[in-house]
Amino acid sequence: MPMLKIFVGTMYGGALDVAEQVKPLFEGAGYEVAILENPSLDDLTAPDTDLALFCVSTTGSGDYPGTFANFARAIADQSPGLSSLRYGLIALGDSSYGETFCGAGRQLDELLEGQGATRLGERLEIDAMETFMADDAALPWVEAWIDTQQLKVA
Ligand SMILES: Cc1cc2nc3c(=O)[nH]c(=O)nc-3n(C[C@H](O)[C@H](O)[C@H](O)COP(=O)(O)O)c2cc1C
């Protein structure tokens, strides 16, 4: 069974909740799913990581949350090259923060692209000003993502 890793960066658990809610959709599509709350660079560069979903909130002024900052720094510093990685990205944020809206998700997208990874589809940005429960936006997006990117394997 192919593996899908969900890399999570969260402060208050919203992004983790999204990961947990979408997990069964990927299982139904034929994947073994691992949710990584404290991801390391090794998780990303392991040979079984060719498809990933990132669920990342923004804190501070467009900053990565908690331990996710170390993970992102490791990618930037060690520049592993990720040309075999295909990924989707769900960014959580709040538009009342203005210019730094979804800043962590946007930075991460650039970082991954710079390492040669290929984003499948558009980035989903979930605005807490508009969407009270992030799952309400994430679930239909993931369903459509699996469909349009033809990710179903079973
Ligand atoms: C201290 C703090 C700083 C924040 N800074 C930003 C920001 O710069 N940009 C943004 O889009 N959202 C910002 N947010 C909003 C969070 O990203 C948003 O509420 C998100 O849904 C939290 O997700 P989580 O439950 O996974 O931590 C901030 C929230 C807090 C509490």
UniProtKB/TrEMBL annotation:
Flavodoxin-like domain mapped to chain residues: 4-146
Essential cofactor(s): FMN
Record's keyword terms, sorted: Electron transport, Flavoprotein, FMN, Transport
Keyword Electron transport belongs to the record: yes
UniProt cross-references to SUPFAM superfamilies, sorted A to Z: Flavoproteins (SSF52218)
Source organism, top-level taxon: Bacteria
PANTHER family: NADPH OXIDOREDUCTASE A, NITRIC OXIDE SYNTHASE-RELATED
UniProt-recorded name of the protein: Flavodoxin domain-containing protein
Provenance organism: Halomonas mongoliensis
